[in-house]
Amino acid sequence: MKLQSLAMQSLKSMARSYKQSDRRLFDMDFFTELFPHESEESISAALYLLEEDGFVSIRSGDGLAYMTMLSPDGIRKSQENATLKIGYSFLKEILDLIK
């Protein structure tokens, strides 16, 4: 899986978990269960991308992201993406009705 795709799927999964149970801390096991065919190194690299963008904070050891904390910006970004998708779907339905 491409690194950017892995990062975005990780962010979505963390935001979904936050919405369901207010969980903001995620260990490596959370991600290895989500992505069983990805190495811990690949998952960590994707999480470091999210950290560079300010969506998460990471506690690392041996170059791996052992604990990841979802930031308020990460939560907001995920919610904005969901809102944009809903808006796009709504507009598409309206255009289909007009045609």
Structural summary, described in words:
This protein has helices spanning 3-21, 28-34, 40-52, 72-98; strands spanning 25-27, 56-61, 64-70. It is α+β, with helices and mostly antiparallel strands and 99 residues long. Strands 1-3-2 form a three-stranded antiparallel beta sheet. It is globular and about 55 Å long.
What integer value in Å does the Rg equal? 16 Å
- The proportion of residues in beta strands is 15-25%
The percent of residues in helical segments reads 55-70%
Structural class computed from helices and strand pairing:
alpha+beta
Order of helices and strands: HEHHEEH
Mean pLDDT: 83
CATH architectural type: Orthogonal Bundle
General shape? globular
Number of helical elements: 4
Unreliable spans are: none
Q: What's the name of the CATH homologous superfamily? A: Winged helix-like DNA-binding domain superfamily/Winged helix DNA-binding domain
How far apart are the first and last residues' alpha carbons, in Å?
A: 38 Å
Largest sheet: 3 strands, antiparallel
Kindly give the count of domains.
Answer: 1
Number of strands: 3
The strand order across the widest sheet is 1-3-2
The CATH topology is Arc Repressor Mutant, subunit A
